[in-house]
Design goal:
- The chain has 199 residues and is of the alpha+beta class.
- The protein is built from 5 helices and 8 strands, in the order H-H-E-E-H-H-E-E-E-E-E-H-E.
- The chain has a domain at 61-196: endopeptidase domain like (from Nostoc punctiforme) (endopeptidase fold (from Nostoc punctiforme), Alpha-Beta Complex).
- The chain has helices at residues 3-58, 60-84, 103-115, 123-127, 185-190; strands at residues 95-96, 100-101, 132-133, 144-149, 152-163, 166-169, 178-181, 191-196.
- It has a 6-stranded antiparallel β-sheet.
- The protein is globular and about 35 Å long.
Length: 199
């Protein structure tokens, strides 16, 4: 009977020790969870910030490429409209389909209606307009090609380059808008310069 109080005391002491140890463990675990959950939002913010920054670095290329595509599409419309006008009569000073066109009037009309651009009215003013000068080997559809008379005198004629060494122009009185080749002897000798108004 003497051992019973001692045994009961030891059991009580042991159960209190276990309870205290469990309480400490629970407290430590919840503190750890709180600390780790406090760390996670900071890590999430870093990831979000990185994701927000990346697209801005890569934005420049698509904008430039879309700009080039826009210029090509506009030049394409100019060339396609020029093809539709083949057969329209030449008329000195003409700038409309109803009246007919002279050589520079044709280009003024095409770029105004299809590209929304105002070109100078005469061949000389077009050359002096500050537009980009283009070499014969660099020609692209939509460029303006300029000619003089058989390699002599000032520039007096302009046409629209459409690719494959061909151009569309309003030749002279009594004729109609037509397509010719830069490889033909007369036009080869008469070619003077080229300009790019769009791009």
């Amino acid at each position: 009977m003497r051992f019973l109080p001692t045994l009961l005391g030891t059991t009580l002491l042991l159960s209190l020790t276990i309870t205290l140890a469990q309480a400490r463990e629970v407290k430590h675990t919840s503190a750890h969870k709180t600390a780790s959950s406090a760390v996670r939002p900071a890590q999430v913010k870093k990831v979000v910030i990185r994701k927000n920054v990346r697209p801005h670095r890569e934005l420049k290329r698509p904008l430039q490429s879309s700009l080039r595509r826009g210029q090509r599409a506009t030049n394409s419309r100019v060339v396609n409209r020029a093809r539709e006008l083949i057969g329209v009569p030449y008329r000195w000073g003409g700038t409309t389909v109803a009246s007919g066109f002279d050589c520079s009037g044709l280009l003024v009309y095409l770029f105004r209606t299809e590209a929304g651009m105002q070109l100078p009215r005469t061949t000389g003013e077009m050359i002096d307009s500050g537009s980009k000068r283009v070499g014969l080997g660099e020609l692209k559809p939509g460029d303006a090609v300029f000619f003089n008379r058989n390699g002599r005198g000032d520039v007096s004629h302009v046409g629209l380059y459409i690719g494959n060494n061909q151009f569309i122009h309003a030749p002279s009185s009594g004729e109609s808008i037509r397509m010719d080749s830069l490889s033909e002897g007369y036009w080869q000798r008469s070619f003077t310069t080229a300009r790019r108004f769009n791009g």
